[in-house]
Design brief:
It is a single chain. Helices cover 31% and strands 21% of the residues. It has 224 residues and is α/β, with parallel strands linked by helices. It folds into two domains: 178 residues, tt1808, chain A (Alpha-Beta Complex); 43 residues.
């Protein structure tokens, strides 16, 4: 059964900030790739909530403007439909890991405000990727601060177990089992390749069984 998180008393906290999810196709591609692969990674974990472009209200106050991370992961909260992430409805658990995918419209002042927001409200790992410059940055919580990760190439997320590689220009992300994050199209292509290999293996098995039967028939005739 799908869980939907909402209470009538909180309806004055809007579920939309009026901003588009992405400014261009490349930014959107990366948001989808990261969010959907994390969904796959935690598909069997009922208490891991993954969302993309969802407003996060850290406190029940209209004086604090919410932020919508491009992707966020909340360990310890159930999957389910949400119009926004109102932390007071979620056992006061903040997203532990967030991503921002940059576009030309982002500026240094805006990103500094987001870093301050994530630092203030408890994010443990923050990753920022610029697909135009192939530049990945990361921050990890140390006490009350989010401090830059000095060596991001080859870094493994302590919370998620995924690994980042940026040595060949474009970012590559690997699951804990070593498999690469792939786009939905690439995942479908891989599934089709696996299906074809399974069919070929089945055909080879049938061919071998037919040859074995011919062998038995032949030597059975000789024995008679």
């Amino acid at each position: 059964m799908t869980t939907f998180f909402s209470t009538d008393a909180d309806l004055h906290f809007s579920d939309s900030d009026g901003k588009p999810m992405a400014d261009n196709t490349e930014q959107f591609r990366w948001i989808v790739l990261i969010k959907e692969n994390l969904e796959i990674l935690f598909a069997n974990e009922s208490n891991v909530f993954v969302a993309g472009d969802l407003l996060w209200y850290p406190v029940k106050s209209r004086l604090i403007s919410p932020v919508a991370p491009d992707t966020m992961v909340v360990l310890g909260r159930p999957k389910g439909r949400r119009g926004s992430y109102k932390q007071w409805q979620e056992d006061n658990i903040a997203p532990q890991v967030v991503w921002e995918i940059l576009s030309p419209s982002n500026n240094a002042e805006e990103m500094e405000r987001k870093l301050e927001f994530y630092q203030t409200y408890g994010v443990e790992e923050y990753y920022q990727y610029d697909p135009d410059r192939y530049e990945l940055k990361g921050w990890q919580r140390q006490g009350e601060q989010l401090l830059p990760i000095a060596q991001i190439d080859g870094w493994t997320s302590p919370r998620l177990g995924i690994r980042f590689a940026v040595g060949n220009h474009e970012l590559v992300i690997y699951r804990p089992d070593g498999r690469q994050f792939l786009s939905p199209v690439e995942l479908e292509q891989r599934a089709e390749q696996e299906r074809q290999r399974a069919e070929q293996a089945e055909q080879q098995l049938q061919d071998m069984q037919a040859l074995l039967q011919q062998y038995r028939d032949r030597f059975g005739e000789l024995d008679s």
